[in-house]
Write a structure and sequence with these properties.
This protein is mainly alpha-helical. 57% of the residues lie in helices and 5% in strands. The chain is built from 14 helices and three strands.
């Protein structure tokens, strides 16, 4: 290891100008804005780390030290993994341009927990949430339409935010909503709008001041942003508030819990793994299998059998 580090140090003639390197790296990338922000954050955090430790010629050991400090600070495993992934890509690029050795090569990230970090609602709880939502005002109609849409279609907040009125179309004899998913540039996937959800959306749109096909499906009613597209933060707030008003207030219940609820209720009520994968628009079926494994454990009655044997 010392030999490797010494070789790296000899290859470095001066402290790299990370600001210039990052600018070149970002201009080279052909990825989404979200990915660019993630790469910038990872690189900037590492730059802060080496400055705080007086490191002028960072090596592989410094990348490892950065990772360990993030652990000590209590950063989430997913955050640490994103930082290390970003550094791997950055230093791979610097090596390719001859600007700096790839000191992040083969540096391991952290072990991620592939179970869901958020809870889901039972069918009874879902009914309580929907029954408790106010539906007489324009805002109430909008919020009810959003929550029912998220529950039946497993929509992410970004998909709700990006939806336009013209995305409601017809496939065969069924109204559907085409979606622009996370990390996607097009709208080639859709969810079916069951009657209750279509009626809720129609009821909301009828009460909008103006409606044009290219308008956002859901718009803000606040004074500062009236008529503008809802932000993902606002969609999250609407979902969270609906659960809280029904008495379900927990850090593990968020807007994403509605998506978990969609998957779980579909599997419980006879949906296949493949159908659930298609419903949630998962690229990899292994992501969908997490729900199935969770349900298989819930259906394991070992504790009850043991209790009957000894009590």
């Amino acid at each position: 290891m010392d030999l490797v580090i010494s070789q790296e140090n000899r290859a470095i003639q001066k402290q790299p100008n990370f600001s210039e390197l990052l600018e070149g790296f970002i201009s080279y990338l052909d990825v989404s804005e979200a990915s660019i922000r993630a790469y910038m954050k990872a690189t900037k955090q590492f730059y802060i780390y080496i400055m705080e430790h007086g490191i002028t010629e960072p090596t592989r050991q410094d990348v490892i030290g950065f990772r360990e400090q993030l652990k000590t600070e209590g950063k989430k495993a997913s955050t640490i993994q994103n930082y290390i992934t970003g550094l791997r890509q950055f230093f791979k690029w610097t090596e390719g341009t001859g600007a700096y050795p790839n000191i992040a090569k083969d540096v391991k990230g952290v072990r991620l927990n592939h179970t869901h970090k958020k809870d889901y609602l039972t069918s009874r709880q879902v009914k309580n949430v929907l029954q408790g939502m106010e539906r007489k005002t324009k805002i109430g109609k909008r919020n009810y339409a959003i929550v029912t849409l998220m529950l039946t279609g497993g929509l992410r907040t970004i998909e709700v935010s990006r939806a336009n009125i013209e995305d409601i179309r017809t496939v065969r004899d069924q109204s559907v909503l085409f979606l622009q998913g996370k990390g996607r540039d097009d709208r080639n996937e859709y969810i079916k709008l069951i009657d209750q959800v279509e009626d809720a959306i129609t009821d909301y749109l009828k009460n909008r001041d103006t409606v044009d096909a290219k308008d956002p499906l859901f718009t803000s009613s606040s004074n500062n942003s009236k008529g503008n597209r809802l932000s993902t933060r606002t969609v999250s707030y609407i979902a969270k508030t609906a659960m809280q008003q029904a008495g379900y207030d927990s850090d593990r219940l968020t807007a994403h819990s509605l998506r978990h609820t969609t998957a779980t209720l579909n599997l419980i009520n006879g949906g296949t793994l493949e159908e659930t994968q298609q419903l949630l628009r998962h690229e990899n079926i292994s992501t969908t299998m997490i729900y199935l494994h969770h349900l298989e454990r819930a259906d394991n009655h070992s504790e009850e059998r043991i209790g009957e044997a000894i009590f």
